[in-house]
Amino acid sequence: MTILVGYVPTPEGEAAVDAGLREGALRGERVIIVNSPRRGATVDEHKIDDAAGAELLRRAREAGVDAEVRQPLHEDDLPETFEELVEESGGTLIVIGLRHRSLVGKFIMGSEAQRILMESSVPVLTVKAAR
């Protein structure tokens, strides 16, 4: 049984990791921290390097949680990437951070978070960063 945590290096991503590690410790489940860069992007400010991945794993060990960091490439369908990982890993929960967006921004840009919420086959825990 596995908890999947969506991570980008933002306050919302940090909140998701914190919540995912808490859930992993409470449930006695392993955690996969998912940092999924877009396939073909020459620069992706959300992609983490090895040092940042090692820091996330250190935090997991400190929380007493078995964890790994994965960076699966995705096209334009991050929710599908999460669903594939749920099936592959026996995922029981997805944890994602939500940022504030205007209604116009949601309408024009869509929302991968909203699609994960609506299309996921497992429960989704959403968290917000502290202000």
Characterize this entry briefly.
Helix content is 44%, strand content 21%.
Give a description of the structure.
This protein has 131 residues and is an alpha/beta fold. It starts with a strand and ends with a strand. A five-stranded parallel sheet has the order 3-2-1-4-5, sandwiched between helices. The chain contains five helices and five strands. The relative contact order is 0.24. Helix 2 links the parallel strand 2 and strand 3. Helix 3 packs parallel to helix 5.
Largest sheet properties: 5 strands, parallel
**What share of residues are in beta strands?**
15-25%
What is the H/E order? EHEHEHEHHE
Residue-averaged pLDDT:
87
Strand order of the largest sheet: 3-2-1-4-5
Give the overall form: globular
First-last Cα distance: 32 Å
List keywords for this structure.
131 residues; 5-stranded parallel β-sheet; 5 helices; globular; Universal stress protein; UspA; Rossmann-like_a/b/a_fold; Universal_stress_UspA
Q: How do the helices and strands line up, and which of them pair or pack?
A:
Layout: E1 2-6, H1 11-27, E2 30-34, H2 50-62, E3 67-70, H3 78-89, E4 91-98, H4 103-109, H5 112-119, E5 124-128
Parallel strand pairs: 1-2, 1-4, 2-3, 4-5
Protein name: Universal stress protein
Family: Belongs to the universal stress protein A family.
Domain UspA: 2-128
